[in-house]
Amino acid sequence: MADLSTNCGGIKSPNPFWLASAPPSNSAYQNCKAFEQGWGGTVWKTIGEPVMNVCNRYGGLDVNGLKLAGLNNIELISDRPIERNFKEIAEIKKLWPDKAVIVSLMVESKKEAWHDIVKRTIDTGCDGIELNYGCPHGMSERGMGAAVGQVPEYCQMITEWVTEVSTIPVLVKLTPNVTDIVYPARAAKKAKAHGVSLINTINSIIGVNLDTLEILPSVAGKGSHGGYAGPAVKPIALHLVSQVARDKEVCLPISGIGGINNWKDALEFILLGASSVQVCTAVMHHGFRIVEDMIEGLSNWMDAKGYKTLDEVIGKSLHRIDDFGNFNLLHKTVARIDQEKCIHCNLCYIACDDGAHQCIDLTPVNGHNKTVVREEDCVGCDLCSIVCPVEGCINMVRLDDGKEQKTWNELVQQFKNDDKELSWENLAEFQKKHGIVIH
Amino acid sequence: MKNIAEKLTNEEYEKNFAELHPPLTQNSAATEANRCLYCYDSPCMKACPTHIDISSFIKKIATGNLLGSAKTIFKSNWVPLTCARACPVQVLCEGACVFVEKGEKPIEIGRLQRFAIESYFNSYKPQLFSKEKSNGKNVGIIGSGPSGLACAAELSLLGYDVTVYEANKIPGGLNTWGIAPYKLRQADSLKEVEFIKSFGVKFKTNTKVGEDISFNDLYKKHDAIFIGIGLGESTRLRIPGEDLTGVVDALDFIEDVKNEKWDKVSVGKRVAVIGAGNTSIDAVTEAKRLGAEQVYVIYRRGTDDMSAYDFEYELAKSDEVIFYFKTMPKKITGDNFVEGIECVKVKLGEKNEKGKRETKVIPNSEFILPVDMVIKAVGQNISNNFINDIYEIKIERGKVVVDEDTFQTGNKKIFAGGDCINGGKEVVNAAYDGKMAAHGIDKYLNSNKKSAIIR
């Protein structure tokens, strides 16, 4: 079995699966139960300023009957007295010395307040601190959470207040509700944080009740934006993680968060640079028990691929992210439909005809329709195979042999060298030479 | 009857005639609708004789647009609740579902259709269709079964003054009187009748053409006539003892059961049903459910030859029906009452030009099956009917001959559809015929019209 242990910014855990700072990590009872079931770490639900919650707090996004494709919340940081939290954190750490216990913090933007809470947190014996600069609702209106995370200067200043007194690793949790996440990440680096965790939840309104016209979730008829999470946010999170991971100035360990539902999702974050992952919505939906499959699935994958340690996998796909200008324009794929496997739903036809490039023909044969790709017209967009409900029925087949290569950047350079304009005419000449027909 | 089966308690009757397939709940309908792939130009739609846009109506259930879903269904089929519950979906829409080809469970199209239509009937029933301005022409429809209802609904919306003549006291034809109660109750069929009535269609019940009113009167009174009278009485067995007390016609028996006054229907302790079509299965399972202790089906050919669908055969077997295949009734025995049926075993030969296997009696293989009741279900005839006297109408092999597009008979003013033109098919075929005939009639009476109605 592969070694799943990890070290994320100096915080060690037996596996990369941590509970995110959220309702599942609210109490000693929950964290203890999670550790028993195999979670490698927990980021204790944010403690700090006195707050009071409201109800309802959550709103779910269902897609075609799939429950909780997204989850939105307006719940605040821990509403349990801070002393009780400290006491429980200390107990849990004592009980589970090998697991990672990280405490998420959020207080007023005052140096003394931060110094005080950091010291008291370290006294619990926990392994690290996570700074909640991302919470997009409720706290930001009070000058905390996202109000800090959205301004790199504040982010740097407050992180410095923490790192100057902290004797344990400090992770800065980043909000996605910014134009460019790299700037607050760089601020964290400048302030000597040990790592960053991302993404926090995304500003959202989950929906409107069509009977009452209320905003969801409704607090006695009133609603507000909340923080959006769950499977639907994963692609956004993957992109932001990769952006931070690729930035040459940041160079910090990353704890990946956002829509992680299973080991495959987790692995994608790890391949894009995360050395630990944090999970919330999937646990809120199905409970702590999901970690068993996460550990097993990741381990089996690593065994099958011949990886012995997690370090060998972290960031393994990052080098494959490139700029559009460096893609080979002469790479050619076309869709091929396996007629043996086709069930005649014609979804590929309608998708291509209405939504793409009109290169699938529908021919009536024996009472049903035969779908055939006109390969000379196929642009290789992949839409048909994406909508096809039958595994392996539509395959994208590579036609070029990879020997010829011309990227957009190279083409532009070539035009420059040849003293040619970047015009439709010159582009057409290039296309003609390589047998590319745009219809 | 010599030995009448003991009557059951009301609870027992209700349990025995409880519906085979319960309705979907709001939640289960949404789940099932979401499972549908929303195929384009879908195979299920092609397999439906009325070509309901199935993937669209299912999609609308998934989005919660139940009114739109019902409208999509009604656009193609005016008796969709009956069809949803009586159609052999396994061999039609659900049999064609792409999931079958994928090796998975097909979408429950029948139950989803029932859900959409029942949701509409249980709603405040807003008007779904607008009627064209009255064109001053009137059409008489003979028979209020599925073809007549469909023709009436369509014509009414096209602006015709429509009157339906029905011999029975309660309209609906086979939808009301001929479908096993565990599939469809009378009240459900009548919801469709009421719906069509709401378009302005007039129903004259207890009016048998040829008895209560002459065909000639109707012919003079109306600009066009649609005939949807189905088939007549059951084919005779032509064996001795056929007139003994206790020998009944399957359709009469089924009609009796449809009154839903179960204790009023007498059934023998031991019942033999002759024939192995879908009507036979209805009769035999209903006899069993009424309390018959032993029920038999006697059929002269084998399992592969019988016209009953596989799922009907399975239902009968689960009702402990005993099948005598390759067995021919020779004589019904008894003095006044049925006491038994003498049968003879047969050997099956090659298929003849009609695709039926030849039968050859095995000598000395006679045996007597003691029974108290014999139900005849060996097909129906179109004979003994006013239709035989209309000289321009051609009847071939027991079917009224019509143009396949317009459903016009040899008499330009007379149109026909349903069982009387196809020899006995499904409700859904009749529903299609009636609708198409309405357009045939419209073309005949309103030939100057530029285009067909688009709703």
Descriptive account of the structure:
The complex is a heterodimer of chains A (439) and B (455). With 439 residues, chain A is of the alpha/beta class. Chain A has helices spanning 28-36, 82-95, 111-122, 146-149, 152-163, 182-190, 234-246, 263-271, 281-286, 290-305, 347-355, 383-387, 408-417, 424-433, and strands spanning 6-8, 11-13, 17-19, 41-48, 58-63, 66-73, 100-106, 128-132, 170-173, 195-198, 202-204, 207-208, 215-216, 226-229, 254-257, 274-279, 333-337, 360-365, 368-373, 394-398. Chain A has an 8-stranded parallel β-barrel, surrounded by 8 helices. In chain A, α8 (263-271) links the parallel β15 and β16 (274-279). In chain A, α5 (152-163) runs parallel beside α6 (182-190) and α8 crosses α10 (290-305). The mean pLDDT of chain A is 96. Chain B is α/β, with parallel strands linked by helices. Chain B folds into 3 domains: 22-121, Fumarate Reductase Iron-sulfur Protein, Chain B, domain 2 (Orthogonal Bundle); 138-232 and 381-445, FAD/NAD(P)-binding domain; 247-376, FAD/NAD(P)-binding domain, CATH 3.50.50. Chain B contains 18 helices and 16 strands. A 5-stranded parallel β-sheet of chain B has the order 3-2-1-4-16, sandwiched between helices. In chain B, β6 (270-274), α15 and β7 form a beta-alpha-beta unit. In chain B, α4 crosses α9 (109-121) and α5 (66-76) crosses α9 (109-121). Chain B starts with 9 loop residues before the first helix and ends in a 10-residue tail after the last helix. At the A-B interface, α11 of A face α2 and α8 of B.
